[in-house]
Amino acid sequence: MPSVYIKTYGCQMNERDSEAVAAQLVAKGYSLARGESDADVILLNTCSVRDLAEQKALAKMENVAAEVRRSRPNVVLGFMGCMAQSRGRELIDKLPDVDLVLGTQKFHRAADYLDDIFAGRRNKIVDTEAETGSEGAIREHLLNGNGQKSVTAFVSIMQGCNQYCTFCIVPYTRGEERSRSITDIVTECRELVARGVREITLLGQIVTSYGRREIPIRDGKSPFVQLIEAVHEIDALERIRFTSPHPKGYGDDLADAYARLPRLVESAHIPVQSGSDRMLKLMHRGYTRERYLGIIRKLREVRPAMGISTDFIVGFPGETEEDFEQTLSLAREIQFDQAYIFKYSPRRDTPAAAMPDQLPQEIKEERNQRLLNVINEIAASRYQKFVGRQTQILVEGPSRKNPARMMGRTRCNRIVVFDGAERHRGQLMDVAITRAGSFTLYGDPAILNLSE
Ligand code: SF4
User: Fold this and answer.
1) Which of 103, 143, 258, 332 has the fewest Cβ atoms nearer than 10 Å?
2) Is pLDDT at 128 greater than 70 in this prediction?
3) How do residues 378-425 score in pLDDT, each as one tens digit?
C-alpha cells in the first residue's frame, strides 16, 4: 500500500482534521511517511485565515511539484482544508501537477478518491460540495504513535460558524454551524479514555454555539454545558478543556460549570480581538469591552487560579491610536497569562477587506510590537509567581524543545519541563516550580511527589 505525508498549516481544527484523515488512511492500509521525500501521497492541509498562510501553502506545493514530481512522477499531490474549499478548481488551474482538491466537508472522502486516482479511474478530482452529516466524520484518532501512549486528545464537536465577524473567512470556508450529537461525542470520548487518554479538548470554531439549533436549553443550561456535563461523567477522564469559545456564548451557566465540574480545568482561551467598543462593533463581535471584563471577573471569582489567554487583532481598518490604546489598557487590566496577536490581514470576500481606512503595514507592525511587549511583561510576572509553589501537572511526554526532559501541563495550561522519565507519561504529579522561563515553567525532579 502507498505511504502518505500530510503537512498541516493553521489551527488546532486543521491539526485534528489531518489526524483524522491520516487515521482513516492508516485503517485502509496506508503507512505514514516521515517526510515528503519518501511519500507516495503528499497532502497539504491548508489555512485561509491569513494571506501569508495561503502563500506558504502555494509556495510549498510549487516546490514539491518541482522537486518531487521530477524524480517520482507517480506521486499524488493534493490540497485539502480551508484554501482548498475557497479556491477549488482554481488551484489545479494554477498548479496543474495537483491531482486532488478536497474541501472542508470532504475529509472522509480522501481514501476513496486516492483509490480512484491510484486505480486510474480518475486523474483530477475537485470536491468542495457541502455534505450533510460530514461534521460527524472527523472521528478517527492516531493514538499511541511510536509505541508511546497518547495522554491527550482533541475531539471535534462541531464544524462551521454563523457569527460572520467582518474580518474572518471561516464562515465561508467551513460553512454553517453543524453539531454532532452528545451521544456520538461521548461515545468517542469513552473510546479514547478506554485507550488511555486522560485529557480531552472539545474542539470547534465556536464551541459555545454547540448544538444551539438542535438541542434545547435544559434547566437553564446551554447545549454546550450539557455536553460538558455528559463528558464529565466519564470516570477515568482526568481533565476537560475546550477551544474556542466566543465571549457572546459565555453565559453564567458556563461560568457556573467551572464551580460544579472539577474535571473542567481552570483554563479559558477567550478571543477578545480588541479593547475598543468601536472596533468590536466594526468587527461584528457582538459584545462590548465591559461585557468581556464581566466574563473574566466571574470566571476568576469561580476559580481564582483560572489561566486566561486570548487572541488580539491589531491594525483592523480604521483602528486609531486611541482604539489601540484601549486594547493595551484592556491587556493590562485583565493581566492575560498568554495572548496571540495577529496583524490584520484582508481576506477576499470578507466585509472588512472592503472597509475604508486600511492601515499601512508599518502601523500594524508597530502596534503588534507594542502589544507584544505588554503581553510578555505581564506573562513574565504571572509566570514568576509560580516559582516556589507546588502545582499539579499531567505528564504528556518528552519536551518538544528538549526531548531529553519530560513535559507536563498544569490545569491552568502552563507547560512545565522537568527531568522525568518515560514511566511518568500519563501520570498526574505534584511538582515544585523552581524557575520560570518564557511561557515555560521548570520543576525540580528532586521534589517530585507522585500522586499515584
Ligand atoms: S466567531 Fe468570528 S472569528 Fe471565530 S470563526 Fe466565527 S466568524 Fe471567525
Assistant:
1) 332
2) yes
3) 999 999 999 999 999 999 999 988 889 999 999 999 999 999 999 999
Distance 352 CA to ligand 1 centre (A): 13
Residue whose CB lies within 8 A of the most ligand 1 atoms, among 48, 104, 161, 210, for a mutation test: 161
Per-residue model confidence (pLDDT) at position 444: 80
Among candidate residues 270, 265, 314, 293, the one with its CA nearest the CA of residue 414: 265
Q: Quickly state the pLDDT bin for 148 (edges 50, 70, 90).
A: confident
CB burial of 355-391 (b: ≥16 within 10 Å; e: otherwise) equals eeeebeeeebeebbebbeebbeebbeebbeebeeeeb
pLDDT recorded at residue 451:
46
Measure 285 CA to ligand 1 centroid, in angstroms: 8
Model's pTM, two decimal places? 0.94
**pLDDT value at 146 more than 70:** no
Q: Which residues line ligand 1 (CB under 6 A)?
A: 161, 163-165, 168, 170-171, 205-206, 246
Say which residues have a Cβ less than 8 Å from residue 305's Cβ, sequence separation at least 6: 266, 411, 412
C-alpha 84 – ligand 1 centre gap (Å): 19
H or E element, residue 228? helix 223-232
Residue 255, CA atoms < 13 Å, CB-side half-sphere = 18
State the cell numbers at 72: 517520482
> Positive or negative CA dihedral for 443, 401, 366, 280?
negative
